[in-house]
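A quick word before the example. In earlier lectures we treated sequence and structure as two separate objects. From today on, think of them as two lines of the same record. Here is PsbP-domain protein 1 written that way.
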Amino acid sequence: VLNSLTPTRPLPPNSLGSTRLHSLPLRNLSTKAFAVPRRKAMALFLSTYILSPVALHEIASAEPSVGLKEYIDSFDGYSFKYPQNWIQVKGAGADIFFRDPYVLDENISVEISSPSSSKYKSVEDLGPPEEAGKKVLKQYLTEFMSTRLGVKRESSVLSTSSRVADDGRMYYQVEVNIKSFANNNELAVMPQDRVTRLEWNRRYLSVLGVENNQLYELRLQTPENVFVEEEYDLRQVMDSFRVSKVLV
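And the structure line, produced from the sequence above:
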């Protein structure tokens, strides 16, 4: 069912990660070089002050947030919030595409099924959330197919759920993890000369909704180590996704 979405292909590790989510060149820069220091910088700043036990508790309990902006597409019928420091990228193949300007394989996009080839009435047309999760994962793996020798992908569905939002519509949420491994010398004759290494380890979060007889999919991609630090913001983004009726 998900194959009816616009078939934008995610690029391999040295490209922008996924989709339709991933149609841009990617240098696969180390996320540690960008994501971790921004948290450490705050810690160093705070360490220069003498804080009371209460203040220390409040800081430990606070969730990091860069602030969110809202994007509304009344023409196509959807809206969502995204980190305000992310930039929009044109020509990425998705209906809309934003990415982190520093962690280049962290991004968000929206895909919409073709109105001429889909007649969705509800997200439940995909089956239960568990079934939808399998379809989402299969779609990702199809997009990540590689012709390179020595490439192996490990994947799993981490969670699936459904919720009725404040607009009265039901949405599915799917989280998957995909790891990519590759040999450092795939053409080597001797097995000991072909050392397998981890290329990337990413989490993909999808929110699925139906309106206007179309399937809408919000896609978030982030490295697993960055997700640990930014989970609060990213889950706010997921929860903000809404589809809406388009007036003809």
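Notice the following. The chain has one domain: 68-243. We will return to this example when we discuss secondary structure assignment.
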